[in-house]
Amino acid sequence: MTRVSLVKGINRRDIIKRSVNLLSDDVKNSLRIRQIIVKPNFVSISTRLAVSHVDQIRGILDALQEYYTEKVIIAEAACGDTVKAFRNFGYYDLLKEYDVELIDLNKGPFEQLPVQDRKGRTVQLRAASLLLDKDNYLISSARLKTHDTVVVTLSIKNMVMGCIYLKDKEQVHQGIKQINKNLAKVAEHVWPDLAVIDGFEGMEGNGPTQGSPIHVGVALSSIDPLAADRVACEVMGVDFNKVGYLNYCSDKGLGESDLKNIEIVGDRLEACIKPFRLHRKVQEQYQWRE
Questions:
Q1: Cα(17)–Cα(27) distance, integer angstroms
Q2: Which of the chain's ends, N or C, has fewer CB atoms near its CB within 10 Å?
Q3: What is the pTM assigned to this prediction?
Q4: Rounded to an integer, what distance in angstroms lies between the CA atom of residue 13 and that of residue 22?
């Protein structure tokens, strides 16, 4: 049975570490000898609430260093200047605390990935070779957030959009219906090996950059990112069946989305639910099925 850890607490770094530690056997078994890449979310280079908090990364690294002794790469293709984002959000401090390297994925190298535009024509995207390399172990470091197009943005969307070159990101946005299909299509190529979702403080309302803070005080982890995102939807009070790209990922068999087949370890789900106020245009986002 697929496992998702769910931990509630009063310190972000601590609950992130504990959520990963609860799955240490799962992680070690799936990791083997691969290079670890941690992919944070920099959808903004200035709004702290919109991005992966540096203490989330610290919590992940704290857990990993108990059994992983190699350098960890932290890599992102920010919506803007990635180096500036690393600086603005305190990521350079990590260089003094851990054996890590910071990489700007917007600098390449890239490989081509096909998606479709709203008329069904094939469009080629430039995607980071580093995240497409199956010899790397991908950790998606995401945050509980609402979204202005696809209802929620969690671990899978973080990895998908973060692999795409800055100037090509808009190519994914081809209307409500097609963006959900495109996200699921790209996800097949950059499926995270480990999802770590920071729900200590999420963003509700008009996410992913213009929303409001909501304190939930939880962290989630799983080696099945779809299962992690599925449980995250429950925590947020979001109807999973209305999130298009997650349903497409489920239809493709990329992960587990049935709660009956997901074992939640740590805290009880019922004790962690805190419904989020969704985007003001969420009803339009539900039209992906039409």
A1: 13
A2: C
A3: 0.98
A4: 14
According to DSSP, the residues that pair with 212 across neighbouring strands are 204
Helix and strand numbers, DSSP H then E, in the chain:
11, 11
Q: Which residues contact 215 (CB under 8 A, 6 or more apart)?
A: 200, 201
User: What's the pLDDT band for 160 if we cut at 50, 70, 90?
Assistant: very high
> 68 burial class (0-12, 13-18, 19+ CB within 10 angstroms)?
middle
Percent of the chain exceeding pLDDT 90 equals 99
Instruction: Kindly state the tokens that stand for 25.
Output: 């056997």
Domain 2-285 has CATH 3.40.50.11440: yes
Annotate 3-22 with b (16+ C-beta within 10 A) or e (fewer).
Answer: bbbbbbbeebbbbbbbbbbb
Q: Say how far residue 44 (Cα) sits from the centre of its chain.
A: 15
pLDDT score of 139: 99
Tokens of 45: 């280079």
